[in-house]
Amino acid sequence: MIALKVNGISRQFNGDPKMPLLWYLRDELGLTGSKFGCGEALCGTCTVHLGGEAVRSCVTSVADAAGREVTTIEGLDSDGNHPVQRAWRAENVPQCGYCQAGQIMQAAALLQANPDPSDEEIIEGMEGNICRCGTYQRIHAAVRTAAKEV
Amino acid sequence: MAQIINVSRRDMLKAAGASGALVLGAHLAPRAMFGEAQAAGASAAPNFFVSIDGSGAVTLTCSRSEMGQGVRTGMPMIIADEMEADWNRVKIWQAPGDPAKYDPPGKDAQNTDGSRSTRHGFDAMREMGASARYVLEQAAAKKWGVGAAEVYAKDHRVYHSGSGKSLGFGQLAGAAADIKVPTGDAKPKLKHPSEWKYIGKDMPVVDNFDITTGGASFGADVSIPGMKIAVVARSPVYRGKVKSFDATEALKVQGVEQVVEIPALADDKGAEFRALGGVAVVGSNTWSVMQGREKLKIDWDLGPHVAHDSSTYDDALRASAKKGGLKIRDRGDVDLAMKAASKVVEAEYFVPYFIHTPMEPPVAVVDASRTPVKVIAATQSPNQARHYVAEALGMDKKDVECEVTLLGGGFGRKSKADFICEAAIVSKEIGAPVRMQWTREDEIRNGFYHAACAQHLSAGLDADGKVTAWKQSGAWPSIVGLWNPVAKNGFGIEFGLGLVDLPYNSVPNIRIENGAEDIMIRVGWYRSVNNIQHAYAMNCFANELATAAGRDPLEMLLELIGDADNMDLAKDGVEKYWNYGDSIADWPIMPNRLSNALRAVAEKSGYGKAMPKGHGLGLACHRSFQSYVATAVHAVVHDDGSLHIPRVDVAIDCGRYVNPEGIRKQIEGAVIYGNTVARHGKITTTKGAVDQSNFDDYPVTRISDAPLDVQVHIVEDFLHLRPCGVGEPGVPPFAPALVNAIFDATGKRIYQLPVGDQLKKI
Predict the structure, then answer these.
(1) N-to-C CA span, chain A
(2) What is the ipTM of this complex?
(3) Deepest in the core among B109, B148, B483, B742, taking most CB within 10 A?
(4) Whose CA is closest to B475, among B526, B518, B429, B420?
(5) B735 falls within a domain
(6) Burial letters for B9-31: b for 16+ Cβ neighbours within 10 Å, e otherwise?
(7) B residues 435-454 near A, CB within 8 Å?
(8) Cα dihedral B473, B479, B483, B485 in deg (nearest 10)
């Protein structure tokens, strides 16, 4: 049995410890905010925080999260008003929206580690997250906007 | 239109029953899609697109699929404006597939593709809003016992102009339910454009809060009681079949419950949007069934398409393009003009296969254990989904319902119902609801590919450097192969995607041909479709001609296009020009609008200014989906061959528009999408199987190579004309503008997309 915390709630998991966290979150806990995009840590759509750092939940096993704190988009802020979420709305970033939870979780972790990133550091920090609608211009602007608040 | 409103109202009242309360149905999908207000008190529903309840909450219907193009914001804005609703009190309800109710223009059965929601639905949505305003105003006039001319709706209330008294929409809902909407000449009047409060103004995306908090519901987020999850092992080669399989090991995986064969589609049936067959692994969670699939042992009969190697196939396309054959446009006498030319220039341009890669791979939930069958899917085309699911199950289409979730990107992939049919077949087989989940590898290896295309061009120049003859011949595997696998030529729709309508109207002699080629893979439409290769070839070749003539590329392009306000292809022997399915009288080809957009982008981008070494500015323009788009790319090519794009300017003339913020976003996104087409996208095949599988070997644009400064200029000179498409037209001009910028920077021409590492070889 694996014990972990997800969005502040203690959880126990009895299934295959190799199961990627993404599928545990989505299929077992019904937390569907984290999305499946590639399964190979290539697109960032599944990004969550593990111990406060951004990880790709599609290649992070439940065993890797044992005894640790997982935060998903649903738990980033109780009112959905984390500075990054607010900035995303202020810049009207989303198109289809599918990748945006991963983008927001990545950006939140980036700003946690580096509250005042340069333009280049924003690009480096967000490079692992793909958006096929092409919202990168607004993502870049929104990270900059959020950086003024965190 | 008016009759439809009338009929709709009657049906709606029937559906609403004696209480007058609007029944919107029970929904299984989560909150983002079905935001109807809690019905409070009596409701009015003057048509299928508007309901107003006693609290004043207004629910507007969106009957088009949202895949990021902003349709759930844009279409309801039109209704809200005409009815004088307050946008803050509006909720959006996503319609299921039912064209009799939800396709009032009657043009495309809710199939959300072809960049046509606004251009087909603008008038209809205005009428829906106007009829709602009408019943509210009439109800107020009746209550006050005054003439209808004395009342007017404004900001969610109806006012009496004499006394200044007013009633809220909610207070009027009950009485408004009894008002009949007149038809014909008496039908409710539309606002004058000067009275619009939302149309033409910026509006953020209605689903922004749900999207940024993880509450938005996409296809894969739907769960229904008793639902199983399935993945399918499919033939690596198009239309290969299962000879035999062994599921012993797969069934040992914890969580795997069943393994079910999806029968191969019969040989005499075209692929269309049908399921092609395979072996489905069914279980309780996605991870288990993915693991189980790995353990399947399948012996495939790969079939004849195993002969499809893209390296040799590409050469065949080139040869076919050069040979030409089917004449599809013929103006003047090209052969004679070429002979008389003082210079003839020839070139060949090539575009490989691409695949869509929406961030959400195809996914659908189907419950075929009940009647009517329930489909809840990320689909662009719910009624085609109903059709193909019904066919797959041997049922009548009326016994299949389809609800539409948000789509995590579409780009044309999700207008095809194959993945939904797979879910239906497996659901029927196991007698339980199924969520059919595709992986990224499935999406890349078993998709509907954008057609590879070779184009051979030649042109004659006279002594003054004017183009006197233009000959263009293209060869590609046609989409028509989905219905007719032995077809070798394209068809009218493909010809009309920017080829037969070559906009260089000043050229006196034009011939356009199509070469024949076998179809070896499943080909389908992709954001902006064949316009990509056509715009690439013609814009780059025009640039080459400018160089050959020693002329400025902008001046040359403007001369080629000219300023006529109508280009009549019938005069050039074009039979049945498709015109994106629209009337040519309503949406003529207007070269002057293309020139106008080109001039605008040249000015905005500072075309003509001196550039440092290694910098270049490239232009391209193209009409597609009735819009006129001109793009200017500023590119920098460094000594090591690396490429940087500091700025892109795009001018778009899309006629009358609804949400300028939405247009800017679509163009910003089209630039990124175009950047993938121009620099990265390439699908190849070996022995019939697609070589690529995920984002490592099929790279797409990331933030690190994205143009981050994209300036969108909405051209308003033709604002009085009908709305045109926006979702797709931004894509085609990007690649040629970039390629022309690279030439300007380096003197190197790129004759084959993607650019990839071709600049490293300079």
Answers:
(1) 37
(2) 0.99
(3) B742
(4) B518
(5) yes
(6) beebeeebeeebbbebeeebbbe
(7) 437, 439-441
(8) 60
User: Is there a single domain that holds both residue A90 and residue A140?
Assistant: yes
Are residues A96 and B66, on separate chains, in Cβ contact within 8 Å?
Answer: yes
> Residue B429's domain is classified under what CATH number?
3.30.365.10
Q: What is the pLDDT of residues B271-293, one digit of tens each?
A: 999 999 999 999 999 999 999 99
Measured CA to CA, the distance from residue B50 to residue B128 in angstroms comes to 7
Q: Which of B360, B670, B700 sits opposite A98 (nearest CB)?
A: B360
Query: Are residues B477 and B505 both part of a single domain?
Result: yes
* Residues of chain B found within 8 Å of residue A45, distances taken between Cβ atoms: 359
**Total domains in the fold of chain A:** 2
pLDDT for B75-94, tens place per residue? 999 999 999 999 999 999 99
Provide the number of CB pairs (under 8 Å) joining chain A to chain B. Answer: 193
User: What residues of chain B lie within 8 A of the CB of A43, using their CB?
Assistant: 359, 440, 695
Of A100, A96, A108, the residue nearest A143 (C-alpha): A108
A62 & A93 share domain: no
Query: Is there a single domain that holds both residue B131 and residue B267?
Result: no
* Per-residue pLDDT in tens (0 to 9) along chain A, 150 residues: 999 999 999 999 999 999 999 999 999 999 999 999 999 999 999 999 999 999 999 999 999 999 999 999 999 999 999 999 999 999 999 999 999 999 999 999 999 999 999 999 999 999 999 999 999 999 999 999 999 987
CATH of the domain at A17: 3.10.20.30
Is A118 in the same domain as A70?
Answer: no
In a domain, B716, yes or no: yes
Q: Do B287 and A43 touch (CB under 8 A)?
A: no
- Residue B215's nearest CA partner among B414, B439, B29, B25 is B29
Nearest-angstrom CA–CA distance, B220 and B179: 42
Residues of A in contact with B207 (CB under 8 A): 94, 97
